[in-house]
Structures are given as C-alpha cells and as structure tokens.
Specification:
This protein has 134 residues and is an alpha+beta fold. The protein contains three helices and five strands; from the N terminus they run H-E-E-E-H-E-E-H. Bound molecules: zinc ion. Zinc ion binds next to helix 1.
C-alpha cells in the first residue's frame, strides 16, 4: 500500500534519497533531514498508513520492537545521555516514530508547546470525556 503523494512512500521506493540506517521487509529507518539533535531517526512501516491508529497491530509491534533496538544503537553511536521516542503524526501523514538522541544539557526539556488548563474543573472535565470513551 503506497500513496503517490507521500514523501515517505517515495523514500521507501527509493524515488527520493535518504540516509537509510536500517531496512527489512516491513520497515525502514533513516535520518530525519531536520534533526532535533544529530542522529535523529525516523522509523516507518513500508506500507502507507496515515496514523498509528490505522496501522495494523502486527506492524506496530514490529515498528516499536525495532525502535527499541535502534534506541540502544543510537545512544551508543551518538554518545547521548538517553534517546526519546515520540510519535507526533502531524508533519507527514505516514505513520512514523521519531528517535531522538538527547543530552541532559541540550536545552530541549521544554520543547513541547504547552497549553495550561484554565481550571481544575476544566481538567477534570477533559479527563472524564476521555474515560467515557475507554
Ligand atoms: Zn506513505
């Protein structure tokens, strides 16, 4: 399954070059061209699934197990203090996992934009809405 307009599908088909770190029948991992820190990797399934929630469980399992392994390699290769895994999903609509080498002093501790709840009541209301869907 591919999407002809998807940049990640083009990387999978080698129509667009990428610095590929790992590849097997189901997955590919390559350097993010706009790294948060050097060594920032993306891990993607080769099949096009826009979102994590649309990706088959078996494939998700493979992505996360490979990501776990790559996190260990990445920590060693970059001599970083730790590696974080994030799923953002708003930049390219082809499910992918970011693996980002981090350093205690890299200044990225607050890089997530944050929205405060206006009140404790509002926070409890949001929590209740989520609980009702589980
Ligand atoms: Zn795609």
């Amino acid at each position: 399954m591919t999407d002809p307009n998807c940049i990640f599908c083009k990387i999978v088909s080698k129509a667009i070059p990428a610095e590929i770190i790992y590849e097997d029948n189901d997955l590919i991992s390559f350097l993010d061209i706009n790294p948060v820190n050097h060594g920032h990797l993306l891990v993607i399934p080769k099949d096009h699934h826009p979102l994590l929630t649309e990706t088959p469980d078996e494939l998700l399992t493979k992505v996360f197990l490979r990501a776990k392994s790559l996190m260990k390699s990445l920590k060693e290769a970059t001599d970083s203090d730790f590696v974080v895994l994030t799923v953002v999903g708003t930049d390219v609509p082809h499910f992918h996992v970011h693996l980002i080498p981090r350093f205690y002093e890299d200044g990225l501790a607050g890089f997530w934009p944050a929205k405060k709840y206006e009140s404790e009541k509002q926070m409890k209301s949001v929590a209740e809405k989520i609980r009702k869907t589980i």
